[in-house]
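Annotators were shown the component list below and the corresponding predicted structure, then asked to write short factual statements about the assembly.
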Amino acid sequence: MADIQKLEQIASQVRRDIIRQVSDAQSGHPGGSLGCTDLIVALYFDAMEHDPSFNMDGKGEDMFYLSNGHISPVWYSVLARSGYFPVSELATFRQINSRLQGHPTTHEGLPGVRTASGSLGQGMSVAIGAALAKRLDNDNHLVYCLMGDGEQEEGQIWEAVMFAAHNKVDNLIAVCDRNNQQIDGSLDEVMDLGDLGKKYAEFGWEVLRMDGNNMAEVVDTLAKAKSMAGQGKPIFIDMKTEMGKGVDYMEGTHKWHGKAPDAELTAKALDQLEETLGDY
Amino acid sequence: MLDNIQSTGKKATRDGFGAGIDAISAENDQVVVLTADLAGSLKIQNFIDNYPERYFQVGIAEANMMGIAAGLANAGKIPYTTTFANFSTGRVYDQIRQSIAYSHKNVKICASHAGLTLGEDGATHQILEDIGMMRMLPGMTVINPCDYHQTKAAAIAIAKHHGPVYLRFGRPGWPMFTEDMPFEIGKALTMAEGTDVSIFATGHMVWQAVEAAKELAKEGISVELINIHTIKPLDEEAVLASARKTGCMVTCEEHNRYGGLGEAIAQVLTANHPTPQEFVAVNDTFGESGKPADLLDKYGLSVVDVVAAAKRAVARK
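Structure shown to annotators:
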């Protein structure tokens, strides 16, 4: 049984890390990072079997691919808090000579990252390749992939959706962050996705839905998704989140998609987020 | 030496690729092959029959193919992606750039039907910019073998080379003449030594250069003929040694004059040993439908064009 309260405490610290990274760099993407914090924490601290000593090939462990690479601050924080690299390194986010590039990459050798992302729409294809390799190697661990909802507008995703269903890639759990915000406005205005879960279901996927900002629900849904693996269908989780979750003035707007708070607003944000594991 | 270079018949370079896949897949069980609805054109049917579990048909979805290949490579597989050169490069440049090149993935991008000699399908498919695009990617190895045997050797060799590779070959039957010659990635192959002019050729144009060198010999012009199958990393020592020896250069490629072998060699010469250079390449235009030989004539890639370029180069010394 997962300790929900403990996961929530970790999430609070991760949200602090996000604000501090973006604030220090005066650059980065806090909104989506805060919205996806509960999922990434639940994955790394509960759902996934993974080894922080990090092996690129991921054999014998679950793997995670972040397709919407701009929410790197949440991933970096969770990787550091999981032991992939020193937490102090979060202070180098987006600075010159850092392994913590604006968008995640293997180029500087950051443990935990297996493929660069940032240019949208590519992560699910890579995750499928990793899942196929696990099948070839008789490794029954799972591959997880997180995508954004605006990213669903990229055609490559639908190539991947078709492929995964046709080829019964049933060791893949793909999650879409449905915060309904993209840079130029809400998805309703820019490109309405309609009932996304229904679309995935029509393509032949198993579909689950969850409130991505309710830790207990995230933990339960991930457990359910895992139990559905290996049954001939890839699994999709339509995850509703609040962009900017946990910082009142960042919630409910796309204004903080890719904008850093100033000193005053940084202090205001940190006042709302309990320091549970010690700041870096 | 030049007289010893004889064609033993014609086979397509893509058939050489298929033969190479057969050989390396039997030897290395980490080799996996993906295709985007072009298994027949890329000659991988034997592989599909022998190793169905290591074969991935992705349908007409090249972007997805590149991403899947990157993911397979993460787990230690050696993925070969197979489609036409146009769909292997321009169509999926960003996928290659981010998921493969920038991410250092051990993916082999195998591209048939490159250049004008694709023939009748016309300019939509006759890519003449692919070498340039792939050369520009940091860490990408770019190989354009010249005949069946060299393509087979290259298809085998790239599995033993760790890192992303672009392997470019073609559609038509083409003279075979390298059966007993060595192949080493990054190492230029001297096919004939000479003193008056250096001809550096890649891909199908190597045979054109062989015929041109024989013509030039009849006129008393001694050609140093060098096959550059690996355009990146370029064998700079071979380029400079030959340029110092002959004092002038011709480069031959089935590619736009921008971005390809000629430009790569010019950069080496300009920085180290400025040398008169003539370019046999497509002059910044798209191709069209037609028979391969007719297209090579029309777009300035015939044996006559190579001979004329060599004479111009010699005259500039």
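Statements collected:
1. Chain B has a mean pLDDT of 98.
2. The longest helix of chain B spans residues 13-27.
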